[in-house]
Amino acid sequence: GEHMVSGVIHRRYGFHNVGFHMGSEIVTIDFDGLIPPAALPEIEAEVNRAIWEDLPVNTSIPSPEELPNAVYRSKRALPWPVRIVEIPGVDKCACCGVQVGMTGEVGLVKIFSCVKFHQGVRIEMACGGRAVALLNAAYDQNRQVSQTFSAKIFETADAARTVSKRLAEAEY
Predict the structure, then answer these.
(1) Residue range 114-169, pLDDT digits in tens
(2) What b-and-e string marks burial along 57-85, b requiring 16 or more CB atoms within 10 Å of the CB?
């Protein structure tokens, strides 16, 4: 999932992944440029299309002679040996991590946030079962808020603002 998000962002904007952390629930990726917030749903949709197309994830190690001419995403030139991971049409980058065999194994990618961080942005996202678990938990929380405010599930933000405003007015 990280490869595909980073690859799409690099192709669209030329930004590099300059930080990465895989937590137990959330993955964070830091980029060295500002990504327009309106582009996030498009990026997520493009990545999920690639997942659902079940593309092959290929790995290779170019020979020392081939490496100088190899085209792949990297912030700097790397010394041989370099393991290259390619998802056709989505990303081609250096990586020494564990990979799935097909993009469909990722399941889905959900981008939760994108905030300014240093000179760029930090994206919070989740993949596969972790994304489903977080979405289920968020839905359950929102269902509880919906019941508390007697509001429809997609109207809880307005209901919370209304109650907050009433509380503020009552304090005066």
Answers:
(1) 999 999 999 999 999 999 999 999 999 999 999 999 999 999 999 999 999 999 99
(2) beeeebeeeebeebebbbeeeeeeebbbb
For residues 133 and 21, give the distance between their C-alpha atoms in angstroms, rounded to a whole number.
Answer: 19
Phi, psi of 61 (to 5 degrees): -125, 105
Place of tokens 């307005």: 158
| Cα–Cα nearest to 63, from 86, 83, 43, 33 | 83
The token duo for 68 is 């100088």
What is the SS3 assignment for the chain?
Answer: CHHHHHHHHHHHHCCCEEEEEECCCCEEEEECCCCCHHHHHHHHHHHHHHHHCCCECEEECCCCCCHHHCCCECCCCCCCCCCEEEECCCEEEECCCCCCCEHHHHCCEEEEEEEEECCEEEEEEEEHHHHHHHHHHHHHHHHHHHHHHCCCHHHHHHHHHHHHHHHHHHHC
| Burial category of 134 from C-beta neighbours within 10 Å (exposed 0-12, middle 13-18, buried 19 and up) | middle
The 10s digit of each residue's pLDDT in 5-57 is: 999 999 999 999 999 999 999 999 999 999 999 999 999 999 999 999 999 99
